[in-house]
């Protein structure tokens, strides 16, 4: 398992948190932790099953910018 922290811009509320968690879990991540104040998303995933670029794309498709 790999754990990565992504800097995500545009998150401000509980809806943002829920949208990102849902989008990232849909691509196969096992754990997602959104920190609105820090503007970060911690993602735990199996590198054999999930590509980090797919995680980033899922967040961007949900309407947020991954820095």
Describe the overall structure.
It is found in: Cytoplasm. InterPro entries: CopZ, Cu-bd, Heavy-metal-associated_CS, HMA_Cu_ion-bd, HMA_dom, HMA_dom_sf. Residues 2-67 form the HMA domain. This is Copper chaperone CopZ. The chain is an alpha+beta fold. The chain has one domain (2-66): Alpha-Beta Plaits (2-Layer Sandwich). Helix content is 34%, strand content 31%. It has two helices and four strands, in the order E-H-E-E-H-E. The protein has helices at 14-26, 52-61, and strands spanning 2-9, 31-35, 40-45, 65-66. The protein has a four-stranded antiparallel β-sheet with strand order 2-3-1-4, covered by helices on one side. The radius of gyration is 11 Å and the shape is globular.
Main β-sheet description: 4 strands, antiparallel
Mean pLDDT: 96
What is the CATH class? Alpha Beta
Residue windows where pLDDT falls under 50 for at least 5 positions: none
Number of helices: 2
Q: Count of DSSP E strands?
A: 4
Main sheet strand line-up: 2-3-1-4
- Helix percent reads 25-40%
Cα Rg = 11 Å
What portion of residues belong to β-strands?
25-35%
- At CATH level 2, the architecture is 2-Layer Sandwich
Class inferred from helices and paired strands: alpha+beta
| Shape, principal axes of CA atoms | globular
CATH fold type: Alpha-Beta Plaits
The total tally of domains equals: 1
């Amino acid at each position: 398992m790999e754990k990565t922290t992504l800097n995500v811009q545009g998150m401000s509320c509980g809806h943002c948190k829920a949208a990102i968690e849902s989008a990232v879990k849909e691509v196969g991540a096992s754990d997602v932790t959104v920190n609105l104040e820090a503007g970060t998303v911690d993602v735990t995933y199996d590198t054999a099953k999930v590509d980090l670029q797919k995680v980033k794309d899922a967040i961007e498709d949900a309407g947020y910018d991954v820095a």
